[in-house]
Amino acid sequence: MVDRVVVGLSGGVDSSVAALLLKRQGYEVIGLFMRNWEDDAECPAKQDFLDVLAVAEVIGIEVEAVNFAKEYKERVFSYFLSEYQAGRTPNPDVLCNSEIKFKAFLEHALSLGASKIATGHYARVAEHHGEYSLLKAQDSAKDQSYFLYRLNQAQLSKTLFPLGELLKPEVREIARAANLPTHAKKDSTGICFIGERDFREFLSRYLPKQPGEMETPDGRCVGQHEGLMYYTLGQRQGLGIGGQGEPWFVAGKDMQRNVLVVVQGHEHPLLLKDTLVAQDLNWIAGHAPEITPPYAAKTRYRQQDAACHITQLANDQLALKFDTAQWAVTPGQSVVMYEGDTCLGGGVIE
Prior knowledge:
By secondary structure, the protein is of the alpha/beta class. It folds into 3 domains: 4-177, HUPs (Rossmann fold); 209-266, SH3 type barrels, CATH 2.30.30.280; 270-349, Elongation Factor Tu (Ef-tu), domain 3 (Beta Barrel), CATH 2.40.30. Helix content is 24%, strand content 31%. It is built from 7 helices and 17 strands. It has a 6-stranded antiparallel β-barrel. A 5-stranded parallel β-sheet has the order 3-2-1-4-7, with helices on both faces. A 4-stranded mixed β-sheet has the order 9-8-11-10, with no helix packed on it. Helix 1 (13-24) runs parallel beside helix 2. The mean pLDDT is 94.
C-alpha cells in the first residue's frame, strides 16, 4: 500500500513545494488547509485558501479545509494575552506549532488514515535506533528549528519536512518550473491574527491602555508610555523620546509602579546579560541533556547560536551562562539549545 501523507497547505510557496515533492516521491498526498483565526476580515485566509486550491489542481491532489479556530483561541491566543498582560513577550508561533500544527492537525490527519504529516518548515528529522532528532535545515538563513523545539518523539516520528535539504532559491525554482501559482508569492510575516497590521492597535482591542511614565534607571521621567504590555525589551521604535544623543531602548518594566525603564545606547549594560533562567522545559529526546558538554543557544529566532554552559538543571528549571553577554534577553521568549545541528529543546525565559 502507498503511504498516505497529509500536508499542511498554507497558500505559500514552501508548503506548495512540500506537497509537490511528496507527490513526486510516490506518496498519496492530501492537502489540509487550516483556518486558525476568524475574529475579523483582516487575516488573509480567503486568498490563501484560493491559492491552496489552485496549487492542488496543478499538483493533482485533494484538499480539505479544517477549522481549528476554537482550539487556537483556547490553547494559543489566551496564553498570548495572559503573557502580555503579565508584562512578558510570548512567542505564539512556538505554541501554535506544538498545540495546533503538530497536535490538532496531526490528530486530524491520523483520523484520515495518514501515516505521516508534512509541512513546509525548514528543518530536518533524523532517526537512529528508534530515537528521533530535530536537525537544523540546510538553509541556515531559513532554518525554523527554533519554532519547533517543543515537539516530542511521538510527533517527530510522524512528521516529514520535505524542504529540509533545500535552499530557499531552489524551492522557488522548483515551484516556478512546475508552474505552481505560488512560485513568486511573497513570504508571510508575523502571525495570522496580527499579520501586517499595527501591533499596538490590535493588542489594544483585548488589553486596554494603561498609560504611565518612561523613566531612566536613575528615575528621571523622559516620556509617557501607553501600557507596559505594548512594549518589549530592546524595542527602539515607537518610544517617542526626542532629544540629543544615542537612540533610546526599552530596558525593563516595573510592573508594580507601571513604569517603563528606558536607556540610551544599543550597548547599554542593562541591555546585556550573560545568564538566564528558563522554565516550562521541553527536551526533544524525552530527557534532559547532560550538564557537562558546551552547548549553543539562541534567545530569539533571528540570532546566531551563542556558546553557553548549563549551570543548573532541576525541577523543570534551566539556568544558562553564555560565554559572551546576549542582547535584550526577553522574558516570555524561548531559549532554544543546540548541540551542533541538533536541536535539543529549551524553555520559556523567566
